[in-house]
Amino acid sequence: MTRLPGRQIRRVLVWQVIATGALALLAAWVSGTHGAWSAGLGGLVSLIASLGFAGVAAASPAGTAGQALRGALRAEALKIILILLLLWAVLSFYKNVVIVAFIGTFIVTSVLFSLAAFISDE
Prior knowledge:
Layout lengths: L5 H26 L1 H27 L5 H29 L5 H16 L8
Helix pairs in contact: 1-2, 1-4, 2-3, 2-4
């Protein structure tokens, strides 16, 4: 895996915020207040996990291929742990969650993060 420059990560994080806002508005229209909150929380889970990934990846040394790989694996491990913990927290504590809005927004914003590798440096 190649190291993602900060510009690419920032752009994807902005896309995630925009997608979360748009999907929260759609969910509010379809399901009301709880739909909007659910979509917002779904996007927030992905956004927090993405920020954790970016922080660990940026702090990891990339002098050799092995160091870069270890950094990427640590970043991905943190991302998975954060996702699992945050999904559990929302589903455990928010009793009125609209599951379609929550999981749908989470999936869309997670897929957006994976597109960072395809963004040009220019």
